[in-house]
Structure formats: structure tokens, C-alpha cells
Amino acid sequence: MARLRPFGISFDKSLEDLIKGIRANGNNPEKLAAFFDSSIQECKDELKTSDIEQKSIAILKLTYLEMYGFDMSWCSLYVLDVLSSPKFQHKRIGYLAAIQIMERQNNDDALMLMTNQLKKDLNSSNYIECGLAISGIASIVTTELAHDICDDLAKMLNHSKPFIRKRAVLAMYKVFLRYPESLRTYFDQIVDKLDDPDSSVVSATVNVICELAHANPKNYIELTPRLYGLMKDTNNNWMAIRLLKLFSSLSLVEPRLKNKLLPEIVDLMLTTDALSLVYECINSILNGNMLGEEDVKVAELIVNKLLGFFKSDDQNLKYVCLLAFIKTCRIHKELIKTHDKILLSCLYDDDLTIRETSLEIVNYLVSEKNIVTVVTRLLVQLIPYNDQKQRLKDIGNRAEKDTDDYFLSRTQQPVVVSDKYKLRVIEKIIEVGSLENYINIPNFHWYLGVLKDILKLNGDNQISIVNMLVTDQFIDMAVRVPSIRPSLVETCIELCVYPQKTDEELLLFRQGLANCVWIIGEYYNDYLTYDEDDAEGRDEEAEEDEEQEHRVKDKYTVPFIVDCISKQEVLIRLGDDETNPRISAYIEAVAKLFSKYCTALGDYWSKDDFSSAAELCKTLIEWLERFRTSANFEVQERAVSFIEVLKLASDAISTHSEKLGENLATLEVPKFITKGYRQLFEVSQIKPISRTLQQRVPVPADLDLSLAISSQGMSDFADLLEQIQERDSKLEEAGEAEDDNIEGGEGYSARSESDSEKEDVDIEEEVRRKKEREERLKDDPFYITGGDELRNSSTTDDSGEGQQQKQSKRKNNKPKKIRREKVLVLDEEGDNSEAEELHSTFRKTQGKGQGKFLVDASNLKKVDLHEEPTSETGETNEGSYEIEQEVEMLRSEIEEPEAVPFVRKQTPPRVAETVTVTRKKPKKKKRSRRVPIENGP
């Protein structure tokens, strides 16, 4: 076989045979696993031979198998054998295996043995082998290898072949990542490659400096004149793109660069036809903070360029264009509204990523005039897929008559979207509606209808958090907009009280129950005193159904609501949930409703009023008795408290009703109701309060939170804690000793009879005291018991027939015209910008996690080229003062502003318009700059 191999005859399996075998057994996992095992074993046998050709083929096959997830770190030494072969074909296979196997497995031992071979190949007369070595170093370099190889690699920066110089520049960046201190030593040599005669070397150098500038831009400000000249003279679009990225990083640390860079970037944007370069010009302006509020013409140019991107069929181009639009609109909001039709069309793009990204820009597009259209088109996306087609068809038919809506309807297509996207749409609708204290809402009855539609659509989507989001918005509207409270109370009654809700319906809506019931209890008086004649802006459909609303409204009395709530058996189950605060809101709401009911009856009651109030009070007490022994402490406490208060109210009502005789038709309300019970709920009205109001309370000057309130108390506490710990340790030791005795068969023999009798007496005494305490506190209503007998006895089986369902409103396919209404929207008390800024400082910011495939350049942030550590003798470098002068000259040149050119003038080419700085290199090889001695090395 060895004699035939030079003639191309071999009986070993090649890589091609291995791939064919994998494909042949790919349909059967068991056969494929067996084939893998046999192939690896064959490769192990082939590696034991002394034939380097056979070894290289085996290494090549193992490298391929490593991509299937097999651990090949065991063959690292064999890789070194192939890598050290004098034949280029074998060496190439060896480097390929080293790059793939050693980089992933991080085999430090093999890398240590590989260092000498890398140095040998770097100094090879064959430049192709030298290029292989550089590629291998860039892929597998570690901190230790970077220390050993950086000097040899730096020599390749001056190689005669541009191919080697280019690779050496790129590999030096990987060395800098692993060994940041080497950047101080070889920075000058990297910068010198900007003047290399070969354009590929210059491009590679720009790439390296661009990546370095992302980590610490201030180190490279002094290179701005040379980089600026390169951007003006280059014809390579890819190099221009990298330079633009570099300038966007530099302008963040030196804002004065804008005066020099912005005119050239705008000029480049106007003269190039490459879309990639145009976008990068826009991106560098936005990311480099070069676009200010005063740069109106530049903003208009950016928007006009971006509009051309939307006409492209490339979804990636549309996506990056949308991102640039979002950045632009945050600075110039007035420009973005002129193109709202095109931007809104992105909400219906087939690409869901574009849809989701476009939601971020909706805030800047919404106004009082178009909010109805925008919200309607957002609601369409919540409709199930099968129902979207007819809905979109109706919108398209109306759009044929409306030229403004034609473009939007033409792009709408029904798309299946995820629940996560639907939740994002719902959050955006609520955010847009409540923007700036509801400044864009033309009619709050329309907005309430939108929120009710969201709840109806969520009945099919079943996104649990939506009920909480919508009902939270209900509360905010109820607190801020007094005129909408009657409609909100009616809506909340329909959601959680009437018609008779089944257990399944209440469980599905459990996230919103507490908020709805709170609104009913808090604002029921507004519902009773609501006058339709005072309401403005009611839509035509609602006005036509006034008579039906009056009939339904008569049913929503307090006794009717309390009766419906008392028949909802699922509330008992929710009340036992210790983590569920909803039933406590129910208990407080029905207590408020009794107060509202007594207020609505007036100051003088008739006999019928006394009996109805007494009957309602009795019903409430019976319902609250069911929660007397709830496992939820808060529910139990509120139930017991309100039971006792209602019993006092019942006694007061019955006492006064007995005074009514034949001569008295009415009698004044009991003082306990007017002066006592009502004051629990009706003393003051809830108003919107700024969330930053508490932070405006100044901290007392004499408050020291680190100072103990009582020094003696703290010392006593420390002594007591020490005693408890000692006692616990003794008890633990005694318990262990007792366990040992029991295990050894000496358990009860070690005890004395007197100790046993004493323990029995203590147990009997404790049981007797416990029974006496339970007997004494049995009738105490404020004593919380946990017995199951009381809970079982208090549970009643209330069943009743369901209430008659509310008639459905007449459907009208014609689009409703929303009329503008004049309403009072309450402002937040104590709201100011300073407090808001203070609040923002307390918000926690979460850093974005670094991607798996991104390069970690965090070590380069610690390297400051302008501050070199001092030498051991404390002397500084002679060139440090000259470098400071260069920086000052550069800044003085940048400070001269220039006008922004929008049309390139036909002028002769200029040799140089920038400041040329001649830098004197230090005599020593390593650069050392001045740093204050007190900072240390």
C-alpha cells in the first residue's frame, strides 16, 4: 500500500467515502450512530501508522466528524504531527484541524507545543505557509500564545508581500484582544499601515482601527486628519463604509468633529449611487449624534433618501430603513408626520419583524385627527385570521373612495400573528390612547368602546395579562375623567356582575375582577346621578338606544348587584387563595355600595326604605359570613371587620324603623349611618397623584438611618440572641445524644421516672390551657380561627336562576363618525419635570447581554494610549508634550465650522484640506506617555 500510494492508488477510505456513508445511513439513526463509531475507530487505527499521508487523511476525516458534535481533543498531538509536515498539502490539513479542534476545545497543552512550529512557519521563505500560520494564530490565539508570538507577528507587518501584511494587520487585532498591553507597543506600526501602497492593507488597517475605536474611541481622536483624508480620496465603497463607522464612534467623544465631518458626509450621500453607502452615511450621522434640532435641511435629506428604500422589495433594506426613520423622528418629529401614510403601511407588512418594529414609531404619528384610523387598523390585527379577510375587504372598499386610505388598504394582508405580537399591539393601543394625559382622544366613549373590543377579542386570544392592562386603564380613566365614570361603571357591571356570570367566565376574567369591582364601589353615585342631557359626543347608535339603556339601567340597582355577587360561587374558591387579592376588593366594594345605597335614599326614609336597607344589610352580612374563615388573611380580616360594622348598622336601622308610626311617614336616617358609616368611604374624593410626588418630601436633616434608636435595646437584643443560639445548640446536642441512645438500645433506660412524669404533666397542662382559651374566644368576632368545622358550617349553598340577558344592540355596518366632545381631564397633583427626572434616576437599567458570536473587546476599554504607566525610575517620555500639542492643533482646526454643502461644486481636486501633523516617534521601541505619579502604574 505504501508503494502504490505515490501512484494515486489507495485502499483507505477518503473523506468522500465518509460523506457518502453518512448520507447513505442518514435515514436510520441507529445505523448512523454505528457508522460514526466505526469511522472514528478506523481513524484511530490510521493515526497509529507512521505514514504521514494516511495520518493527514485521518485528521481530515476527524475534522469533518467534529462538526457533528464529537469531541476530538484527544487527537491534538496527531494534529501537530501533520501540521509540522514539510509538504504544504499536509500542513494545510493540519492548520485546518488546529483552527477547528483547538479553538473549540481550547487545548492549552497542544497550543504550548505548537508555539515553536508557529514561529517557524512565520519565518518561512514560502509566503503561503506564512499566511497559513497567520490565519491559525488569528483563530486559536490565547493570552499565553499572544505573549509569545506577538513579536514575530509584528515583524510580518513589514513583509514584502501585501498578502502577508494584510493578514498580519488583521491578526494583530486578535492579539490585542487577548493581550491588551501589546496595543501600546505596536500601535505605531499599525497606524503606519494607513500609508501602505497597497489598498487592501490600508482597508484592513481601517477595519482594525474601527473595531478598536468601538471599545475606546478617545485613543484614536488624533488619527482624525489622516482618516479624513482617506475618506475624501478613496474610491472604495467598503472602505468608506468602515471609515463612516469609525467617525460615528469618534464623534461621540469629540462633538466638535461634527463641523468638519457633516458637510463631507452629506456631500458623499448626494453623489453616490450605492444604497449601502447612502444608508451608512445616514447611520453614521444618527449614531454619531451629528443630527441636531437645528439641522433641518440634513433631516429632510435623510428622510427623502429613506423614502426610496421603502420602494425596494428587499425586506432587509426596508427594515434598516425603518430603524433609521425611528432614530430620525425622535429628533425631528414634525418631518415624520408628513409621511405617516407610508410609515403606517409598515404595520401591515408581511414581515412580522417590520410590523413589530413599526409599532415603536406609532407614538410620533398619532394626532387627534388620525388616532381613530390608527387605532382601528391596529385592532384589525387582533381579529382571528379567518375573520380578517372580510374586515380588510370592507376597509378596502371604503378606501377606494378615500385616497388617503388607498395606499394602506392596498398593503393590508391577513397574517397569522403570535400572542406575543398581539400583546404588543394592545400595549401600544393603550399607550397611544393615554399619551400626554389623553391629549389625542377625541371622544372618551369611543375610546371606552375600543377597550371593550380588546376584551372581546381577547376572549378568543386568551392572553391573561390583557384583562389586567385594560382594567388598569379603566381605573386611570375613572380617576382622571369624571364624565366617563357612569359608562365605566355600567361596563364594569356587565363584565363581572350582569348578566349572571358562570364560573368559567369569571375565572377567565379573574385578572380584571378586582379593578372592575373597585370602580363599581367607588363611582356608583356618578352612575346614579348621570344625566344623558349633559353628555356630549355620544355616537348616533348610542343615542338611538337611549330607551333600552334606561330599561337596563333600572336593573343595575345596589340590591340587584349584591344579589348577583352573592350567587357567584366561584368567589369562595378565589377567596381561599392566599396569593389572590381580588376578593378583598369585592368585600370593600359591597361595603361601599351599601353606603352609596343609603346616600341615594336621602336624609329621610320611609318605612319601605327602612325595610329595604335592613334587607340589604342582612344579605351583605350573610354573604360576608362565608369569608369569615377564609385561608386568605386579608380576606378574613376585612370580612370579620365589615360584619361587625354592618351588624351595628342593622341594629341602628331596626331601632329607628320601630319609631315609625301612623303619624310619621318618614324619619331621619340614623346618625350611625350618616355620621359614622358614610365617613368610612365618602370623606374625600380620590384624585390623580403624580408617581414622583413622594420623592418631593425632603429628608429630615436630623435623620440618621445608621443610628440605633436605642443603644441599650440593641445591646439587650444582642444578648438575647446569643442566649437563644446557645440554647438551640444545647438542645441540638441533647437531641443527638438521645438519638444515639435510642439507636444503641438504651433510649428509655437513661431517663429517670421523675423526668417522664414531669413531661406528662406539662403536656396535659398545655392541652387544658388551649381548650380554655378556645372556649373563651369562641364568641369573639375578631379572633381568627383556622378550624375546618366553622368553615364548613359557614358555607351555604346559594343557587338562583340567571338574570335575563341584556338585549344586543343593532348592528350597523356603516362606519361611525366620532364626534369631538369637551371633557374635563384632571391633571396629576404634584407633577413636575424635576421630579420626573429624579424618578428616572431610580429606574434600574438592564444591560443588553452580549451575543454568542460577538467578539468580547471589554479588555481594550482599559487601555488608554494617552496615559502610559511611568517607568521604574519615574521618568516620562520626551514625546508626551509634543503629542499634547498635536491634539490641541487638531482641536483648533475642528472648531472652525463650515456650511453644509448639498450640491457638489465642480472644483479642481484639492491635495489636502486638513491639518498635517508630523509625529515624532520616540527613541525607544515601546511608547510611554506621561501620567500623574499618584495614579500608579
UniProtKB/TrEMBL annotation:
<dbReference type="GO" id="GO:0006896">
    <property type="term" value="P:Golgi to vacuole transport"/>
</dbReference>
<feature type="region of interest" description="Disordered">
    <location>
        <begin position="729"/>
        <end position="882"/>
    </location>
</feature>
<dbReference type="GO" id="GO:0010008">
    <property type="term" value="C:endosome membrane"/>
</dbReference>
<dbReference type="InterPro" id="IPR017105">
    <property type="entry name" value="AP3_complex_dsu"/>
</dbReference>
<feature type="compositionally biased region" description="Basic and acidic residues">
    <location>
        <begin position="859"/>
        <end position="869"/>
    </location>
</feature>
<keyword id="KW-0333">Golgi apparatus</keyword>
<keyword id="KW-0472">Membrane</keyword>
<feature type="compositionally biased region" description="Basic residues">
    <location>
        <begin position="807"/>
        <end position="820"/>
    </location>
</feature>
<feature type="compositionally biased region" description="Acidic residues">
    <location>
        <begin position="756"/>
        <end position="765"/>
    </location>
</feature>
<feature type="compositionally biased region" description="Basic residues">
    <location>
        <begin position="918"/>
        <end position="930"/>
    </location>
</feature>
<dbReference type="InterPro" id="IPR002553">
    <property type="entry name" value="Clathrin/coatomer_adapt-like_N"/>
</dbReference>
<feature type="domain" description="Clathrin/coatomer adaptor adaptin-like N-terminal">
    <location>
        <begin position="40"/>
        <end position="649"/>
    </location>
</feature>
<dbReference type="GO" id="GO:0030123">
    <property type="term" value="C:AP-3 adaptor complex"/>
</dbReference>
<feature type="region of interest" description="Disordered">
    <location>
        <begin position="897"/>
        <end position="937"/>
    </location>
</feature>
<feature type="compositionally biased region" description="Acidic residues">
    <location>
        <begin position="734"/>
        <end position="743"/>
    </location>
</feature>
<keyword id="KW-0677">Repeat</keyword>
<keyword id="KW-0653">Protein transport</keyword>
<feature type="compositionally biased region" description="Acidic residues">
    <location>
        <begin position="826"/>
        <end position="835"/>
    </location>
</feature>
<dbReference type="InterPro" id="IPR016024">
    <property type="entry name" value="ARM-type_fold"/>
</dbReference>
<comment type="function">
    <text>Part of the AP-3 complex, an adaptor-related complex which is not clathrin-associated. The complex is associated with the Golgi region as well as more peripheral structures. It facilitates the budding of vesicles from the Golgi membrane.</text>
</comment>
<keyword id="KW-0813">Transport</keyword>
<dbReference type="GO" id="GO:0005794">
    <property type="term" value="C:Golgi apparatus"/>
</dbReference>
<feature type="compositionally biased region" description="Basic and acidic residues">
    <location>
        <begin position="766"/>
        <end position="781"/>
    </location>
</feature>
<comment type="subunit">
    <text>Adaptor protein complex 3 (AP-3) is a heterotetramer.</text>
</comment>
<comment type="similarity">
    <text>Belongs to the adaptor complexes large subunit family.</text>
</comment>
<dbReference type="InterPro" id="IPR011989">
    <property type="entry name" value="ARM-like"/>
</dbReference>
<dbReference type="GO" id="GO:0006623">
    <property type="term" value="P:protein targeting to vacuole"/>
</dbReference>
<protein>
    <recommendedName>
        <fullName>AP-3 complex subunit delta</fullName>
    </recommendedName>
</protein>
<dbReference type="Pfam" id="PF01602">
    <property type="entry name" value="Adaptin_N"/>
</dbReference>
